[in-house]
Each structure stands twice: as C-alpha cells, then as structure tokens.
C-alpha cells in the first residue's frame, strides 16, 4: 500500500514510517495538517494515518479534504487520551478506524489488514459490471505484479500491466502473436497464471480472433482462459466490446436490488460483517455479549459499528435491548455467505465502456 503518515511528533512520525516500510509499504510523511492536505491533493494514497490534533490544520480538516479530492484514500485517525468522542465523530465523517496514542504497530497492522480485507470484500459485493469493481480488481493486480494484458488492434492495456501480449498479423515473438497462433498465446498466458497468486488477465480487441476462428470457437477459448484463471483463484476481465463473448460465470440465483446493495456495502467492513455473523448464529445478543467476542479493541468502536448497522437497517434492538437482525439484515447476510462460499469474486468481469 501507499500510505501517508501525518503527525507533528517527529518521533512517532519517524518510527511509524520506518515500521510500515519494513512491512513493505510505500510511505510518505507530513509534519502538520496543511502539509498533509498538500500531499493528498497531489498524490494518490491507499491509506492515511492522521494525528487528530496537528498545527495549521487538524486531522479532521485533512479528513474532510481527503473526502473531496481523494475519496479512495482510507483514513485512520490517531488520537490522544480524552479525545475518543472526537475520534468517533471522525469515523462518522468517513474515517475507517481510530487508534489511541501512543500508537502500537500491531494495532495499525490489524487496521491495515482489515482495510485490505474490506477492499477485497468490495470486489466481491459490488455488482460485477460496476466500474469501481473492475477498476479495483485491475489496480490490485497491478500492485501485486499479477496483471497480464492481451490486446488486439485498437485496444489499450490497463495501466500497470506487468506484461502485455499483443495480437497482430505480423507476429513478433515473444509478445506479439498472429490470430492463428492460439497455441503460443495459450502457452504465454499459462506461464503468467502459473507464476503469480490470484492472477488477473485483461483481454480486449479480439476481433481478429473472432474473424479467423468464429465467435463460437473464441467464446470456447475465452471460457477455457476463465477456467484457468478460476483454478488459480484469479479473474478474467474482458473489454466492453467482448461482452457477447463472455460466459456467464457469476453466482447463480442471487438477486441484488439497489436497497440491498447498500446493505452489502455496509457488510464490506470486516468488523460489521463479524457482528452480523455472530448475531445471525446466536440470535438476540446483548451489547456485553458482543463486546466479549473481541471484534474490536474498545467499546467506543463497537458502539460506532452497532450504530452504523442500525442506520443501515441491518440490526435493530429487540426486547430487553438485545440486538437482533432485521429481515433485510438476514437477507443481506445470506447473500454475503452465498457469494463468499461460492468464490471470492466472479471468474469473469466486463470492463465498463
């Protein structure tokens, strides 16, 4: 991940950035809120660790600016003693977590792992045709050096492809193939699939293949590539013009309307997903019983997530103040379980036009 660490304490700033770099992250730092805003306005970050109280601009100021100019940046607030209520307000404003000072690297690592899990869940729960779902799959694969592009004339590979195979009448091995060289193309794709975890293959501009082999044979070939990707827990992303060639590989029998989609998005958060799973299995659950499950490291965080689940109509309070799932909540959880049990994400996605 690319992470911004903003804190006016030079010791915390230095130690956190070095520990995160040791974990393999790319890290930038800012000594105050205004510098943090300048960095967020000019660079793309996966996550930002923001001290709540900083000179020139506060962590809340940075959070609000990030929500406008960089909504894909996940913000984790770092708060001192006595400011928990403010930190909860920050979460209501869009922060994904807060960590008390002095920040422990284990707590930050847990939060970053939860963030990665949430992003994987977004890929799972977002509609397969949603542009953000496809963009997330491609960006994740590019970061992991797991993205292969196979493009014909007029099609462009996505940004960050580790290797690009091209389709052309004039073959120039090892990366450019003629339409009749399916055997060589298959060997190159197979080498990519065997060399990385959760591989992603992007294929677009396949008209020359369709002209030579016919749509039925190309459709069969695409199905074979998709099956090879699926066997490696990967994904095939087809260009928008290849929609007619795409096999139907999504989970069967699941209907997701707009209202339910919002609830599924709430369940992308691993803490809220764990709470719903527990209440689904246990029945009406008291606050103290949920807290004992150690889904979060403080009662303040649990209160926030319970409020969020109620606002999203997934939980309600029953007799005696116990939390129970609403009918919509039970329906949303069944969909999450079905999607999770069938696969991490569909084997085939269509890129938006």
Provide structural commentary.
The chain is α/β, with parallel strands linked by helices and 353 residues long. It has three domains: 102 residues, Response regulator (Rossmann fold, 3-Layer(aba) Sandwich); 119 residues, no CATH class; 85 residues, Orthogonal Bundle (Arc Repressor Mutant, subunit A), CATH 1.10.10.10. Helices cover 48% and strands 16% of the residues. It is built from 14 helices and 13 strands. The strands form three sheets. It has a six-stranded parallel β-sheet with strand order 8-7-6-9-10-13, with helices on both faces. It has a five-stranded parallel β-sheet with strand order 2-1-3-4-5, with helices on both faces. A hairpin with a 5-residue loop joins strand 11 and strand 12. Helix 2 packs parallel to helix 3, helix 5 packs across helix 6 and helix 8 packs across helix 9. The longest helix is centred in the first third of the chain and has 21 residues.
């Amino acid at each position: 991940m690319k992470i911004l660490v903003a804190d006016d304490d030079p010791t915390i700033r230095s130690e956190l950035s070095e520990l995160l770099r040791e974990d393999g992250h790319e890290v930038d730092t800012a000594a105050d809120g205004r510098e943090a805003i300048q960095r967020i306005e000019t660079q793309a970050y996966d996550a930002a660790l923001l001290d709540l109280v900083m000179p020139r601009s506060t962590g809340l100021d940075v959070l609000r600016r990030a929500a406008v100019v960089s909504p894909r940046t996940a913000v984790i607030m770092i708060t001192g003693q006595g400011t928990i209520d403010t930190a909860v307000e920050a979460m209501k404003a869009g922060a994904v977590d807060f960590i008390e000072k002095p920040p422990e690297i284990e707590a930050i690592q847990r939060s970053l792992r939860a963030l990665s899990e949430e992003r994987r869940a977004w890929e799972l729960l977002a509609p397969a045709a949603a542009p953000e779902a496809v963009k997330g799959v491609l960006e994740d694969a590019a970061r992991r050096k797991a993205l292969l592009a196979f493009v014909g004339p007029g099609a462009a590979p996505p940004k960050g492809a580790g290797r690009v195979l091209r389709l052309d009448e004039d073959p120039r091995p090892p990366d450019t193939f003629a339409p009749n060289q399916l055997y060589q193309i298959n060997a190159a794709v197979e080498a990519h699939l065997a060399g990385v975890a959760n591989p992603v293959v992007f294929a677009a501009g396949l008209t020359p293949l369709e002209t030579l082999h016919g749509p039925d044979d190309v459709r069969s070939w695409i199905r074979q590539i998709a099956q090879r990707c699926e066997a490696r827990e990967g994904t095939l992303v087809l260009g928008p013009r290849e929609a007619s060639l795409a096999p139907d590989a999504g989970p069967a029998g699941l209907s997701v309307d707009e209202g339910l989609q919002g609830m599924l998005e709430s369940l992308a958060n691993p803490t809220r997903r764990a709470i719903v799973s527990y209440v689904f299995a246990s029945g009406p659950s008291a606050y103290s019983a949920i807290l004992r499950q150690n889904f979060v490291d403080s009662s303040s965080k649990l209160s926030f997530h319970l409020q969020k689940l109620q606002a999203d109509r997934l939980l309600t309070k029953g007799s005696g103040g116990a939390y129970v799932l609403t009918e919509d909540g039970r329906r949303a959880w069944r969909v999450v379980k079905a999607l999770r049990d069938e696969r991490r994400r569909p084997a085939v996605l269509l890129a938006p036009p």
